[in-house]
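Sharing a chain and its predicted structure for anyone who wants a worked example. Both blocks are below, sequence first, tokens second.
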Amino acid sequence: MGDYLGVTQSLRARISRVGEHLRVLAEYDVEELERLNTVVLELNREYANAQVELAQTNLKLHQREAQILEAAMADQLTGVGNRHRLEQALALEVERAERTGEPMAAFMADLDHFKQVNDEYGHQAGDNVLAAFGQLLREQTRATDILARFGGEEFVVLLPHTGMAQAVAIAERTREALALLQIEPVPHPVTGSFGVAVLAPGERAEGLIRRMDASLYAAKDAGRNRVVAS
């Protein structure tokens, strides 16, 4: 039978005669209700399991997307960020510094006489030097700093919430550690020149890069293996 809501129900009835009238005594079919209840419980379990599987699939998909994005932003040889990662992070950090008023510094590093390393010891030796410097940068900087290979043997490190004195200290510490590093098969120390700059009020990313680059070339002109700030 169906009720006014259109829901079908199964009933069991007994019919008896009372005088001239028929009496219908109806009751629910308990066995069918139990069967329907079992079906509903099973459907609910299947639905819950499907929801769990869907959530796990979505999580794995998001994790995979994050891994792909991270790989697209990384320099595979050195393990630091690539040029695209630098451009993205620099735009964000410049905007953050403007909004908060916090200082932001950065330095550019260039490996001295890197072409000679390639020419004398081969490109694999050059790759070893680049990879070793990438590792050194990770060891000498903070978790909040952003490291990137700018191109060739040039690297840039963004230093959020950092003033000039601290930025120079980090660059100088990195320079000293590089000069002490032994990198096979290069028999002599590899040094680097560093240019440091602090974001000026109203300055854009391009201006900061230009000033770092100018400081870097001033370090090279002054004899290399040194830190120059502007």
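Comments welcome. The mean pLDDT is 88.
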